[in-house]
Amino acid sequence: MARAWRGDRRFLALATLPLLFSIQQLLEGLVWRSGAIGDVAGIARYSLGYMFFSWLAWPVWVPFATYFLEPARRRPLYLVFAIAGGVLGGLQYVPYFIHESWLVTRFLTHAISYQGVQLLDLVIGREATYAIYLIVVIGPLLLSTERDAKLFGVLVSLVLVTTYAFFQFAYVSVFCFGGALMSLYLVWRPFSSGRTGHDAGRTLRLPARAVASTEGRSG
Fold first, then answer.
1. CA distance 9 to 23
2. What are the pLDDT digits (tens) for 41-82?
3. Which of 44, 19, 17, 50 shows the shortest CA–CA distance to 100?
4. Residue from 75, 14, 71 nearest 205 by CA
5. Taking 80 as the threshold, does the pLDDT of residue 90 lie above it?
6. What are the backbone angles phi and psi of residue 216, rounded to the nearest 5°?
7. Where are its TM segments located (predicted)?
8. How far out from the chain centre does Cα 144 lie?
């Protein structure tokens, strides 16, 4: 994050993702702790905090972060993604405050299952809801013109496939945990380039004529 701030600030929102993921994982740790001591109110409170990230933060923040990386002509598409994510997340998350029984937290042997009733179950069904969710969250990354954002999208897609194949019993928890692990790529990437200061998070692209001129002088 600090390197993005000192360098190319277009990457700042994307660089914030590891921090946001760490907060979500901290909340799940508090869910585990509350379950261990039998704190029912704590389970409900921290589960709501955890699902805030799942239903609202990721569908809005990911397209929002990618928006700043794109050329002006492509930005309206990412704005549509962010708005769609906000509408979807709001419809799914806000009802938890009205119907407390809709969010059910179950403790499994090595995972937590977040289940219950979802508003859009009554409208388009859960499969369609999740399909829209994944398009809104992963789509902006895969469609990005920035290589690092696209690669991060590929990593998250691999997490999705793994979750679907092996961890459907706790898909929300596993998918978000996998996303948190993959976000470490965003931490590692600026340091891997060996650039510091204003060069961090920025790739210098010379116009073709400038490259040709440079090559001519070196010859």
1. 22
2. 999 999 999 999 999 999 999 999 999 999 999 999 999 999
3. 44
4. 71
5. yes
6. -65, -40
7. 49-69, 76-98, 123-143, 155-188
8. 14
Reference 113, options 32, 59, 21, 42; nearest CA is 32
What digits encode the pLDDT tens for the residues 100-111?
899 999 999 899
Q: Taking a C-beta distance cutoff of 8 angstroms, is the pair 102, 110 a contact?
A: no
Phi, psi dihedrals of residue 67, rounded to the nearest 5°: -50, -45
C-beta separation of 118 from 126 below 8 A:
yes
CA distance 191 to 186: 10
Tokens for 20?
Answer: 């946001």
- pLDDT by residue (tens digit) across 144-191? 999 999 999 999 999 999 999 999 999 999 999 999 999 999 988 776
Tell me the average pLDDT across 28-40. 98
Helices marked H in 74-205: 75-93, 95-98, 126-143, 147-166, 171-182, 184-192
Answer yes or no: are the C-beta atoms of 159 and 182 closer than 8 Å. yes
Q: How far apart are CA 49 and CA 56, in angstroms?
A: 10
Q: Which of 169, 179, 186 is nearest to 24 (CA)?
A: 179
pLDDT of 207 over the 80 cut: no
